[in-house]
Amino acid sequence: MQNDLISIIVPVYKVEEYIRECLDSIINQTYTNLEIILVDDGSPDDCGKICDEYAAKDSRIKVIHQQNGGLSAARNAGLDIASGGYIGFVDSDDFIELNMYKELHKCLIENDADMSICGIKRFGDESKSDSYGNRKLNKNEYLKELLKDNIKSYACNKLYKRYLFDVVRFPIGELFEDIKTMHLIGEIVSTVSLIDKCFYNYRIRSGSITAENKGLQARDYMTATHVRSEKYKGTDFYVPATVGEFKCLRVTVSEMSIAKKDTNEYKNLFRQSVELYKVCHKEIKGFQKAITCLYLLSPKLFYCIKKIILKMGVVS
Predict the structure, then answer these.
(1) Helix (H) or strand (E) segment spanning residue 214
(2) pTM for this predicted structure
(3) pLDDT tens for residues 82-94?
(4) Cα–Cα distance for residue pair 281/166, rounded to 1 Å
(5) Backbone angles phi and psi of 2, in degrees to 5
(6) In the chain, what are the domains?
(7) DSSP classification of residue 283
(8) Which residues of 267-279 are buried (b: 16+ CB within 10 A; e: fewer)?
(9) What is the pLDDT of residues 122-145, one digit of tens each?
(10) Ramachandran angles phi, psi of 153, nearest 5°
(11) Nearest Cα to 225, choosing from 296, 265, 175, 189?
């Protein structure tokens, strides 16, 4: 294993329109000591051919072609052959800033950390950035910030020491795999370092807004966060999942209101979100309190105003 080599794992599936932008942003990184593992997860379009095309031009690229198994299976396949001392993940419809891995590696080394994290910028249907300041956290501090959702459970805006994945793998065939994995990494780390810059660009793609799909996704998300939270009950970093669950329902219900799905599912989810707010309202403050009041008045109005706010570049 090469200690200074970064293995970047890229699951690839039905992203023919975006994959070249993604791969160009990786191969042109200012940190050049890279092993780039492209996992063609049975993509039915020309993604597999594009992966082979890039591999023929850049000796740092390895390509795995496998039957479709989902995001977790693709990431795990990459982990199984990774030879670098560090691990990174990039989703194939996203792209990264050219100095991302140079800065993440520098941050990790200078702080003697096991994992470094940069901010993430969403673009596409909506624009929003999440950044975390320049900080150094111990294990308990990181887990508490993760459980409070102050640090997001994204796998892709991080650089990891390879040993963190000696036993941890992503759950195959399950939704919200990052939420079910990042706290397990948090249990192993000693130190986490954060950069107050957004180097990862996350693409928001349009999807159908249906009561059934949104409702099911919200319940799956809430189950994942609740199980994660309850795992740490009785510890110093235990944080109830209520706030995260409320914010999830707030988004889901407002999107369903725009889709004009005045169903029992919609009504039940809105009622459930109101009950959650009664429990966690003291933990929601400032700007979040203001837009929450708007939501309680009218989920549809909340959705419209939130879209305007995001276009103005205000983090909400």
Answers:
(1) helix 211-231
(2) 0.84
(3) 999 999 999 999 9
(4) 40
(5) -90, 120
(6) 2-204 (3.90.550.10), 211-311 (no CATH)
(7) G
(8) eebbebbeebbee
(9) 886 555 677 788 999 999 999 999
(10) -90, 35
(11) 175
